[in-house]
Amino acid sequence: MRRNLRALLIGAFLDVGVIYAAAAADVPIRTPVYAPPVLYNWSGLYLGANVGGAWSNRTLNVAGTAWDDPFSTAFIGGFQLGYNLQAGHFVVGVEGDFDWASFGRPSFTVSSPLGPVQFSDRQKWISTVAARFGITSGSGRLLAYGKVGGGWAQDSAALTVPSGMPIWTGSNTSGGWLFGGGLEYGLKPNWTVKLEYDYLKLGDWTTSTVSAVSWRRDTQMIKVGVNYKFERGGSDDATLTPDDQAGSSRAKGRDIEELAKASQNPVASLIAVPFRLETTPNVGPFNRTQNVLTIRPVVPISVNDQWNIISRTVIPVTSQPNPLIDSSTNGTGDATVSLFLTPVDSGIKDFYWGFGPIIGAPSASDAILGDGKAGLGPTFAVFYRPEHWVIGMIANNQWSVGGAPGRTSVNFFTAEYVINYNIPGGDGWYLNSSPLVTVNWTAAPGQQWTVPVGGGLGRVFKVGDQSFDASVQGFYHLIHPNNGPTWSTRVQVSLLFPDR
Predict the structure, then answer these.
(1) Average pLDDT of 20-44?
(2) Residue 395, by phi and psi: left (phi above 0), alpha (psi -120 to 50) or beta?
(3) The domain spanning residue 164 has which CATH number?
(4) Which of 68, 80, 148, 430 sits most deeply, having the most CB atoms within 10 A of its CB?
């Protein structure tokens, strides 16, 4: 009986197994399917604004004699409108822009068959229309592009004899061909930022005077801009960088000290917009005060899982004492853009580094406020963040590579060394010292170096949901040129955006 029961049970299990196996044979085996990352979407209409610098190799020809215009640089600013179509990693589109220019300059005297003649001119605006074509990075957020098209500019000019009587005035709008290129980054689903270079070749303009005066007006431009996309480029999660994803808890709510240390590190993956006011008394022969307000947006750009590019732009707004008369000139100075290639993980705990180019744009609105030269050179940063400290340096050297031919060549070094101590349990308070050492290699021996020492204190705090970093410092200029200022102050307020 037991034997029959055992056989019955075994047979039942075998029947169940056969039925299950037969049923399983009809069910397809499910294998994991790899879902490729969704590319950032560049397609659609966008509208934006830009600022930057422009320069023109303006050479006058007066009765066969060539004269270089020494003031042919400008601050430019305006807006752009465009449309993109995307296929995989390839992007094509069309873009138009319009920029106001500050090419106004004082007149200067040139020789002519009529005797000395004063010449002045002004380029009022520049507009371009161009086709864009580019390719995106692996995640699709970084777009490298070129552009080809045409452009127009409006000029006005005047020739005046020394007595003050004008012998000719005129205005002209003419066009030419354009080429350029740049980098654009999808910062958020609807927002992008860009850095761009353009060359606009315009025809010569010749006066109707006897003898005729003609001048070349080709224009080069360096711009930084921001665009709003009417079609979203992706979800908010899709625009997190790899280091944000690895530390999402920090990205969604860093503690105050961690946020302070990130703000103090120039190659940290943190969006920040610092406003720095530097005041230097007793500048120039009339002992006037120089004030320089610099706007310094910092934007981290994710290249891939291992590398970031940290973009640092410096746009100065200056009140500069005049070296000839007891007055000051106000306006924009020469802007710079630094691009630091930096690893997401350096492989050394609490150690950060980055290097890349620094690009200078001759964006000064007046000759006294800038060098009138386009600059290029290397920049690097090294930082160590043990415990409550942030210690490091950011340095660069620029050489002039273009700009107004009549201006002095540039060879200029800057180094800002940083020593910060974040007070434990100090509710965001910290002590800091970050003097800016400068060296003008083209100056006479003994007049090249400016070496300040000093420091101050600051605090990272929140007002509502917005994070801020505010600090104040004072410096004594231990080494400075003859008759140079001996001390200065710095006040800085930064808007911090830790949530990506």
Answers:
(1) 55
(2) beta
(3) 2.40.160.20
(4) 430
In a domain, 30, yes or no: no
Owner of token pair 């979203």:
232
Nearest to 195 by CA among 325, 338, 327, 405: 338
The number of folded domains in the chain is: 2
Average pLDDT over residues 94-100: 96
Measured distance CA(327)–CA(60) in Å, rounded: 31
Determine the structural domain holding residue 209 and report its residue range.
Answer: 44-229
User: Are residues 282 and 148 part of one domain?
Assistant: no
In a domain, 110, yes or no: yes
What's the pLDDT tens digit per position in 386-422? 999 999 999 999 999 988 777 889 999 999 999 999 9
Beta-sheet pairing, 436-440 with 411-422 = antiparallel
Is-contact 458 494, C-beta < 8 A? Answer: no
Last residue of a domain, one of 207, 229, 251: 229
Rounded Cα distance between 380 and 341, Å, is 9
Same domain, 278 and 196: no
Within 8 A by CB and 6+ apart from 419, the residues are 389, 390, 391, 432, 433, 434, 455
Predicted structure pTM score: 0.81
Pairing of the two strands 335-343 and 351-361: antiparallel
Asked whether the bond before 211 is cis by omega within 30 degrees of 0, the reply is yes
In whole angstroms, what is the distance from residue 498 CA to residue 272 CA? 8
CA 84, CA 143: separation in Å to the nearest integer?
12
Pairwise CA distance, residues 309 & 293, whole Å:
25
28 pLDDT above the threshold of 60 = no
Over 50: is that where the pLDDT of 1 sits?
A: no
**Same domain, yes or no, for 82 and 202?**
yes
